[in-house]
Amino acid sequence: MGNVSDKYVSILRQYWGHSDFRGIQRDIIGSIGSGHDTLGLMPTGGGKSITFQVPALVAEGVCIVITPLIALMKDQVYNLRRRGIMAAAIYSGMTRREILHTLENCILGSTKILYVSPERIASELFKTKLRHMRVSFITVDEAHCISQWGYDFRPSYLRIAELREKLPGVPVLALTASATKLVAEDIMRHLRFAEPHILRSSFARPNLSYSVRRTDDKNGQLLRLVQNVPGSGIVYVRTREGTEQVADMLRRQGVTAAAYHGGMGHAERSLRQEEWVAGRTRVMVATNAFGMGIDKPDVRFVAHYAMCDSLESYYQEAGRAGRDGVRSYALLLTSPDDGGRIIKRFEQEFPPLEKIKDIYEKVCSYLQIGIGDGAEASFLFNIHDFCAREHLYSGTVVSALKLLQQNGYMTLTDAQENPARIMFCVSRDDLYKLRVQRDELDHFIRTLLRLYNGVFTEFRQIDEGEIATWSGYTVQRVKELLKRLWQLRVIRYVPSNRSPILFMDEERLPRADLYISPDTYKRRQELMRERFEHMLDYAANETRCRSAVLEAYFGEGDPAPCGVCDICLARRRAAKQKSADAAGNAAESLRKEVLERLAQGPADPRELADGFPGGVQRTGEVIRQLLDEGLLATGKDGKIRLK
Fold this sequence. Notes:
Strand content: 5-15%
Helix content: 40-55%
Number of strands: 23
Shape: elongated
Strand order of the largest sheet: 3-4-2-5-6-1-7
Radius of gyration: 33 Å
Mean pLDDT: 86
Distance between the termini: 80 Å
Number of helices: 25
């Protein structure tokens, strides 16, 4: 198993300031450090990233980390660099030149951790450069994505096995926060583990109190929670409009609350997130777009205003409460019509196969991808604009894209910040003619050419602020001049924006060649229904500890009751009541017996007490009570008699 030596602990102290590892971090680091393929099952907030970042700094070469979440990738690279650790990332939307530069640094050995999105590992450029790289080990984050039975299957993950062929002898660390037994076995098989090896952290959260409220008044129940539990919280709501409505309701009740959803501008979302992390906003009302990679340990409650579609999602979202180990609350609100609503949504999530083909064609036309084109290309994709233009319901489009992704055609990545880009679409000679005629544009074009090379052959990222500094114009004027050159067809200009990126896993196919496996479709439908039924069972359960239900779902053998969920607390109250009732009944019966005995004549108190099964103390208490009530009296001889 390999012990974690002092060098790992000293790296942890030096870069993170912690004195020791938590939970199973030590075992995972020891295992991967000794060269063993390892599957680490760790709940959200269990410190997954430490398990590959620390050994990566000790090992020779670069650690390749595969993860689908671009926003998280950028976050981690930023945080590692702040600590003085050389990290980099490659994802959809970067130019070839940027990718090349990043890979060259990995070959030279200056980069210790390289994050790669799964669709990028299949590109020829990556495969070519990989041959010259010294790789310490491969980390597969969100490893459940490799399993068709996982709740977020991505075919691009299946290509990770190809890396193993190119890197013989390089061990693999697979990490996930949510894998059932079936999924765990699937992960190890697809990643070609030399032998099965799972290190499982406990999924118990002893400080987190889970509860479910069935109610027609969700607002009232939510307010009770917010008013009774001090500290910050998250309320998860299904729709964008819902986030605004619930946040508004809380504000009217004097709670500082803000809404957060995918339809907002990047700047506004960042600001709202910062206000909440800093504690200036108490409650964040959000869709499930909120929470990934947010490090706020003192969240005191997470409330779900609507049911999740799986226990995996619920456990992950509820688990954002109480990461600091202090008592916190996870509340699920359900109403009688929730089940029906979700089944309706469920039907929309599986559009007919012909509808999926329609959407594929419309997306390709919208992005102007011709048949036979587009392989491994990335496109900015504004899904809201697309849905509005095509008069389509966004839920159906998202589901169709997910099924197209699961069949290996295209991948929609999470939204990210995209800098402005330009590319000249005229030759240098034509440009010269144009420059002679226009003074202001002449100076502006000279500035562009001085600042950016390669703009005649490919799109280059530009910084409008930098151009403003060098040209002497305001940023606003720079944008106007770029648009002017675009209108004159001198350049192609993509303004800076925040948008998801659609990556074409392969070239656009004719409709007739587009194949969506009916078996996969049907099996995924069954799995989704099965997962949703587990969620319904969790909500309907009235007898079994909620924490134990969740732990058993994630494969823990015989979980003990948590003692703090609503079911355990109700059971404890019932037991207390029962023993109080039993004590009351016993006292009543003893009282009758004492009165019956004294009806036969006076008695010495000690002899009287000894004569009953309750013992001296219990009988003494009953006698005192009867004396206080005036039913008994003490004679001059010290004996007790009926009054």
